[in-house]
Every structure is written in C-alpha cells, then in structure tokens.
C-alpha cells in the first residue's frame, strides 16, 4: 500500500466501557496456512491493558480456515470446496482459540454463532446472557461464526457484519475493526496514488460505499465494503465504529491511551437512545403483563427492572424474547406504562407472578434472569 497509517489524523478515541474488537484473518494467518502471533500479540496486549483499566472487550476473530489449512494441506483442492472449507474451519477452530489463550492469563471462552442465532429471539437472548456472564466472570470471549453449519455466511466470509451484530448484542459502546489497512480512503490507495484518507464518516451513504473496493487480501474474503456495512449496522444501534490498522503497533498503543488513528464512523444516536427508540416503535406481541401500582411507579419514576413480585396478571400468550406491553392493573383498558423484552414466556410469568426472584429456580426448574423485564430492555411510555 502506498498510503500509510500516518496519513490519518491522530485524535481522541470516543469514550467507551465495552467494545467489540473484530480481528481479520490477515492479522492471525501465516503465509501458506496456519496461524502466527506476529500481529495478534499486540492486539491481545491492547485487550489486556483495556481490561486493567476497567473496560470490557469481546473479540470476534477470523482465522479458523487458515489454521485448518496448515493441518490438512491441499484440502481445498480436493472434493467439494464448501465442504472442504467447513472441514478446515472445524479443524482450525481449536488452534484459533489456542492462539488467543496463549496471550492471556485469564480464561478465553469460545463462542460460535450464526446469524440465525442473532435473528431468533430465544437464541439471541441465550447468546446475550452467555456473553455478559463471561464478561462478569472476567473471561475473554472469542466469537467466531459457526462455519461448519453457516454455509451462506462462510461463503460470504463476513465476520465484519457478525461483529456489528455482537456489538449490539452485548450493548457495546464501540466497535473496533482491525485489518491490514489503515482505514477508509477516497479511492483504493493501491491503485490510485491520489487517494486521500477519510478520518471521519458521519453517515454511511452511497458516496461512502462507492469509495470501498473488493477484498483487501488473499487471506480474508471480506473487504472495505463489508466493514462499512458493518459500521452502518452498528451506527443504527447507536454504536460508533473505528476502522484501523491492526498491523500498526503505534495505532494500538494510541488506542490504549485514549487516542486513535484511522477512520471513525459516527452513530447518529447514542446507544441508549437507539435501543429505546427501537423498543418504543417495534411491534409488540399480543398480550400484556399487568403490574401493581408499586411496580408501575418503580418502572416509570425510578428506572427499575420489572421483578416477578410486581406482576399481578398476564394477558395473552407470548414467548421469551418477545416485546410486550406492561400495563398498570388498576383501571380497565389502562394505557401501557412501559414495554420491553420479556425474559420469560407468558406461561412462565404466570407461575412466578407475585413471587420473589430467588424462588424462580424452584418454581420453574431454571432461571434466565432475576427480572421479568430487565431495565436495559425496557422503555417507559
């Protein structure tokens, strides 16, 4: 590349407490197959220093296919190409997790997801609960697509968009996309010496997408276009995105000290405002949860979660993960006081209504959360 990361302006990194770091294949794959710590080590050091500063990081890492290629050389040249890539992903996933584990004293957890996991409400909530619990346990979640079953996603090689979904899943403040390019340019700097760096993008529109070319390396199958698509998805969830050069140790040192060098893609709304806007306007499931006066006041005035003890009655039938209206029980046809994502089905809520949260396990045989609707998943109307 003719342009360098130093062409981008050094400026403050947006403030954050939780981030998703997407690491491209080119940063972990060795030439000819296998994995290398050459760039991964500096990325891991950034994660460690962030953790020491009280911040949380979820890693979304590519590289399983490259790792598998070293175990079975020539696999892609024999048999069905898609089946071979799936087999290589299965073989290489353990090596990929092993690479990351060697850099951390704290445990590394493997989390394999498909886009279907993020579209299905119940699986979405299960994945969210697992990732948040791993962060609470001070583990380093390393997420990858479940390539052995994600035929379409594997063909696209699109961990950039998966990272955007994960950022929304865990309520991240920031999405960090590391690759082997310094950021977005007005044209492909490999082909156009007049290409200029783009320090900041207010909105990912057609003119911005037109600046993106194809895949950036022979190892990865994504490119700047998929990174911008991911940034647009993150922006819609109120999450800002930084595109930066993961091969540049100075860029990583800057980020560890609250500065950045690369392209910042802004979000039009804050993360909280975007989520509340979605909850307010998304279609709700048939039925409602009716609450007593104390619970209604706690929701509307104190920003509390809805606990089972405040539930009086349940109307209709809905599943865990549905958006449901919450109404005060007093008065016929009362307008909803709130709406939110329920952690339990209508049937389960009827069983735990008016009971203490600590009784959920005994009553149901399992527990997803102490709350029927957590305050992070609730908007007051």
From TrEMBL:
It is found in: Cytoplasm. ATP binds at residues 22, 179-180, 221-227. GO terms for cellular component: cytosol. It is an enzyme of class 2 (transferase). Its EC number is 2.7.2.11. Substrate binds at residues 62, 147, 159. It catalyses: L-glutamate + ATP = L-glutamyl 5-phosphate + ADP. Keywords: Amino-acid biosynthesis, ATP-binding, Cytoplasm, Kinase, Nucleotide-binding, Proline biosynthesis, Transferase. SUPFAM superfamilies: Carbamate kinase-like, PUA domain-like. Its main location: cytoplasm. Pathway: Amino-acid biosynthesis; L-proline biosynthesis; L-glutamate 5-semialdehyde from L-glutamate: step 1/2. One of its GO terms (molecular function) is RNA binding. CDD domains: AAK_G5K_ProB (cd04242), PUA_G5K (cd21157). InterPro entries: AceGlu_kinase-like_sf (IPR036393), Asp/Glu/Uridylate_kinase (IPR001048), G5K_ProB (IPR041739), Glu/AcGlu_kinase (IPR001057), Glu_5kinase (IPR011529), Glu_5kinase/COase_Synthase (IPR005715), Glutamate_5-kinase_CS (IPR019797), PUA (IPR002478). Residues 287-373 form the PUA domain. GO terms for biological process: L-proline biosynthetic process. Belongs to the glutamate 5-kinase family. PANTHER family: GLUTAMATE 5-KINASE, ISOPENTENYL PHOSPHATE KINASE. HAMAP family: ProB. Catalyzes the transfer of a phosphate group to glutamate to form L-glutamate 5-phosphate. This is Glutamate 5-kinase. The gene is proB.
């Amino acid at each position: 590349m003719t342009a360098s990361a130093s062409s981008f302006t050094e400026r403050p990194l947006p403030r954050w407490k939780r981030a998703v770091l997407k690491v491209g294949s080119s940063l972990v794959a060795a030439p000819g197959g296998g994995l290398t710590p050459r760039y991964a080590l500096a990325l891991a050091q950034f994660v460690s220093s962030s953790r020491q500063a009280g911040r949380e990081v979820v890693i979304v890492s590519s590289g399983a296919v490259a790792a598998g290629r070293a175990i079975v050389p020539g696999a892609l040249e024999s048999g069905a190409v898609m089946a071979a890539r799936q087999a290589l992903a299965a073989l290489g996933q353990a090596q990929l997790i092993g690479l990351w584990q060697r850099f951390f004293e704290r445990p590394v957890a493997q989390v394999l997801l498909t886009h279907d996991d993020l579209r299905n409400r119940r699986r979405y909530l299960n994945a969210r609960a697992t990732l948040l619990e791993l962060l609470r346990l001070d583990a380093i979640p390393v997420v990858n697509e479940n390539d052995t079953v994600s035929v379409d996603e594997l063909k696209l090689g699109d961990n950039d968009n998966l990272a955007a979904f994960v950022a929304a899943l865990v309520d991240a403040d920031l999405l960090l996309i590391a690759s082997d390019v310094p950021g977005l340019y007005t044209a492909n700097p490999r082909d156009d010496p007049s290409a200029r760096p783009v320090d900041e993008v207010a909105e990912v529109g057609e003119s911005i997408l037109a600046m993106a070319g194809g895949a950036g390396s022979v190892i990865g199958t994504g490119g700047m276009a998929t990174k911008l698509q991911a940034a647009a998805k993150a922006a819609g969830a109120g999450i800002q995105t930084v595109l930066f050069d993961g091969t540049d140790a100075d860029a990583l040192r800057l980020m560890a000290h609250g500065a950045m060098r690369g392209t910042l893609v802004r979000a039009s709304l804050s993360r909280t405002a975007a989520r509340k806007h979605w909850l307010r306007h998304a279609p709700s499931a048939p039925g409602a949860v009716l609450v007593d006066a104390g619970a209604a006041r706690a929701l509307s005035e104190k920003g509390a979660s809805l606990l089972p003890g405040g539930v009086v009655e349940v109307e209709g039938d809905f599943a865990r993960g549905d958006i449901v209206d919450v109404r005060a029980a007093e008065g016929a046809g009362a307008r909803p006081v709130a709406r939110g994502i329920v952690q339990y089905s209508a049937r389960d809520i009827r069983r735990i209504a008016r009971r203490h949260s600590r009784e959920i396990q005994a009553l149901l045989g399992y527990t997803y959360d102490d709350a029927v609707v957590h305050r992070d998943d609730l908007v007051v109307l």
